[in-house]
Amino acid sequence: QVQLVESGGGLVQAGDSLRLSCVASGRTFFSSDMGWYRQAPGKEREFVAAVQGNSGIAFYADSVKGRFTISRDNAKNTIDLQMNSLTPEDTAIYYCTAEYEGVGRGPGTGTIRPRYWGPGIQVTVSS
Description:
The chain is mostly beta strands. The protein is built from no helices and 11 strands. It has strands at residues 3-7, 10-13, 18-25, 34-39, 46-51, 58-60, 68-73, 78-83, 92-101, 113-117, 121-126. The strands form 2 sheets. Strands 2, 4, 5, 6, 9, 10 and 11 form a 7-stranded mixed β-sheet that branches. Strand 4 and strand 5 (46-51) form a beta hairpin.
């Protein structure tokens, strides 16, 4: 049974940094895309970032480019999301995701969506 478990969330102030981590169990994802989605209160769930399994190429939503960095450790079956210069608009539940499927130019585009989801972790940024 595949499980994705997030850690590292919490309450920070605007301008602070936070690092989220996700560990996968049940199978290895070294050849699969892994990434993060988020859902803010009253808004739809949205793509944040992902890293391809084979190429290691990273994809980011425009709203986090230059501030967030995604990384993965295939040996540990983990991915991290380093979030810098946080703003209140980054407040959301963040979901670890794995094994993207669909048609598009990369994770988060076209019909490409993750097959596996973690339970989510809260990130709150105060002004």
